[in-house]
Design a protein that fits this description.
Layout lengths: L1 H12 L7 E4 L5 E4 L14 H4 L4 E4 L2 E6 L7 E6 L3 H24 L5
Antiparallel strand pairs: 1-2, 1-5, 3-4, 4-5
Length: about 110
């Protein structure tokens, strides 16, 4: 269900951010992307060292920012570009998606 939630947000942001943006899960699969042809593919650049940290990483023309509520983040956002603006976009999108995911999980938590 997170995939559809993330794709909805990415789709809304794609016009405001004139770059390719997307979300990768813990298995390095692109689960949401402004370039629909990339959804479901593996991102070989998203390695274990990136997924184990909340830091921002730049690799091969993309900026990555991991997010999630755990010590080891569940997801990462990526933004096309290696400049400061790409880094800021990645950070803002990661914060937004983490908050939306937390709200969604709390809303649909069957144990409450």
């Amino acid at each position: 269900m997170s995939n559809r939630l993330f794709q909805s947000v990415v789709h809304q942001m794609k016009d405001a951010i004139d770059r390719i943006i997307g979300v990768i899960d813990e298995s390095s699969t692109i689960i949401a992307c402004s370039d629909l042809s990339k959804i479901g593919t593996n991102d070989e650049l998203f390695t274990g060292e990136i997924s184990e940290s909340h830091d921002t990483y730049v690799r091969d023309g993309f900026t990555y920012k991991s997010f999630g509520l755990h010590l080891r983040p569940d997801y990462a956002v990526f933004v096309e570009g290696t400049d400061d603006i790409a880094s800021k976009y990645a950070s803002v999108i990661a914060i937004s998606l983490a908050s939306i995911k937390q709200y969604y999980d709390e809303k649909y938590d069957r144990n409450n």
